[in-house]
Write a structure and sequence with these properties.
There is one protein chain. The radius of gyration is 22 Å and the shape is globular. It has 11 helices and no strands. The N terminus is likely disordered. Helix 3 crosses helix 4, helix 4 packs antiparallel against helix 5 and helix 7 packs antiparallel against helix 9. Helix content is 69%, strand content 0%. By secondary structure, it is an all-alpha fold. The longest helix has 32 residues.
Length: 301
């Protein structure tokens, strides 16, 4: 915990008194301890790296020899990988985000994290496709491909809103203190306005914007909304993470962006971008021997 969160104080856990006086901490310490926390984090990254390595290896190997066994291998790993990715991403959300306020209970947090992650992934996929069209992908990436990504962006905008509203409504309706306090502290100070910004900027605007067919298939219209969604994914993460920091009176610190927030984003994002650009020029644009590549190239709406 101290390594993951330097601001965390073991002496006053979450403003609920000392560790020994906090029954929830005593009960959850067997799960939220440094050794088990670090071990789970290692499991998450090993799982994700393993899946990425296998799919990348299978695709490149098939381009070399054309053996259909690589496609069969990818199908088998994809079946198990769906379960593995869903399980690890859910527990990662519990560990890295939700456990910052471990007194809070929610049965929908893992689904919220899945929904917001898919929205970010689809936005990045749209930007990559638009970049490739501008460079060397014209004729390979069709309008129908952008349309499919745009439809999924719209669908997950609705899904994210459904999950987010359902979580809020169920907690509000039950009115249990162990659940409602999480929203109460996010209605204090300028966090209330951040919540309103997410409501209208992360749902209402993308929902209306992506209703348009042209917005889904026109690169110059799809790119801005993809960047917009990515920006609000970051804001949504801030809204979920940062209010756990409180002053001596127990009031959450106001919303703000520090140099450490920016450096973390630039550092992690920079490593990912560097890795992608480095490998981009060393591989083929498409999997030329994939059994369904012709079907993909001829895909129409």
């Amino acid at each position: 915990w101290k390594w993951m969160n330097p601001a965390f104080d073991f002496a006053t856990v979450g403003g609920h008194g000392t560790v020994g006086d906090d029954p929830l901490w005593v009960k959850k310490a067997i799960y939220l301890n440094m050794e088990w926390f670090t071990g789970r984090t290692a499991i998450y990254f090993i799982s994700w790296i393993l899946l990425a390595y296998i799919f990348r290896r299978n695709s490149f190997s098939q381009d070399r020899d054309g053996d259909p066994k690589w496609t069969l291998s990818s199908r088998k790993w994809a079946a198990g990988g769906l379960f593995l990715a869903g399980l690890t991403s859910t527990f990662a959300a519990f560990d890295w985000l939700k456990s910052l306020e471990y007194h809070w209970f929610s049965t929908m947090y893992g689904v919220w994290f899945f929904a917001t992650s898919i929205r970010a992934a689809l936005s990045v996929a749209a930007l990559i496709c638009i970049y490739l069209i501008a460079r060397q992908g014209r004729g390979v990436i069709q309008t129908s491909h952008l349309y499919d990504i745009g439809k999924l962006m719209f669908a997950f905008t609705v899904f994210w809103a459904y999950i987010t509203f359902s979580q809020y409504f169920l907690i509000w309706n039950a009115n249990i203190p162990e659940e409602t306090f999480w929203f109460n502290i996010r209605e204090q100070g300028n966090w209330l306005w951040v919540g309103y910004a997410i409501l209208f900027g992360h749902f209402a605007l993308p929902f209306v914007y992506l209703l348009s067919y042209k917005a889904k298939v026109t690169p110059s219209r799809l790119a801005p909304i993809a960047i917009w969604i990515l920006a609000f994914v970051l804001l949504d993460l801030f809204f979920n993470i940062m209010p756990f920091k409180k002053d001596t009176a127990g009031v959450p610190l106001p919303f703000g962006v520090s140099i450490w927030d920016v450096s973390a984003l630039v550092g992690v994002g920079g490593i990912w971008l560097w890795s992608y650009i480095k490998s981009f020029g060393t591989t083929k644009l498409i999997p030329i021997r994939d059994p369904r590549i012709v079907e993909s190239l001829q895909h129409r709406e």
